[in-house]
Amino acid sequence: MMKRLPFLRRLRSLPQAREALALVEFALSLPLALLLILTGLEMTNYVIVRMRVSQIALYVADNMARIGEGSVLSAKQISESDINDVLTGAGMQAGSLDLYKNGRIIISDLEPVTSPNLLKKYVIKWQRCRGDMTTHKSSYGNVGDINSGMGPAGRQVIAMDNNATMFVEVYYKYQPLIKTSLSPTQDMVEIASMAVRDNRDLTQIYNTSGATVSSC
């Protein structure tokens, strides 16, 4: 046994032996390194997608607060075509996300119950939706619901007297690059709201005859 030790020491010192040892170490560490790389790629993609979904929610809320036709001296009227144009634009902005196949947009019109609104109560006067994920419903109310505002607790938005607030929810089912289990979660929900910019006719949505209504 003692005679074999010098031979083993010489064997360990050979370049081929060192290369073989490095190869074994690499093979053992490869799965862990690959897992870390793939997780990093998936997490980066997840963050980018979530940011894009958030930007879409803001885009829709901002445009919904601006739409309408009318002169400076009269209240602007909004139509189903206006709403559909905003929703179509959101789908185009989403691009490769394929938003309406993998998600859903819910637009809510929040208005004061009375004016002046002494009780600080608000009603969801109408909603419009688009997207194949019809099982996803609004987390903050449906048409006719009366509440103290819309949004998460502590972050609720309201509407000023004789005005409306556009509240938008964008739901998206995350489509992984590699595997869903490498991302934090598969369901994304981003919200945004904007007060209507101009004097708007709040009595109804106009030009509904023959128009496609994106009902919820």
Question: How would you characterize the overall build of this protein?
Answer:
The structure is a single chain. α2 (about 15-65) runs antiparallel to α3 (about 80-95). This protein has helices spanning about 5-15, 15-65, 80-95, 100; strands at about 105-110, 120-130, 145, 165-175, 185-195. It has a five-stranded antiparallel β-sheet. It has one domain (about 35-195). It is α+β, with helices and mostly antiparallel strands and about 220 residues long. This is Pilus assembly protein. Keywords: Membrane, Transmembrane, Transmembrane helix.
Characteristic key phrases:
alpha+beta; 216 residues; five-stranded antiparallel beta sheet
**How many E strands?**
5
Work out the oligomeric state of the chains in this entry: single chain
Through-space gap between termini: 83 Å
Helix and strand sequence: HHHHEEEEE
Q: What structural category arises from helix and sheet content? A: alpha+beta
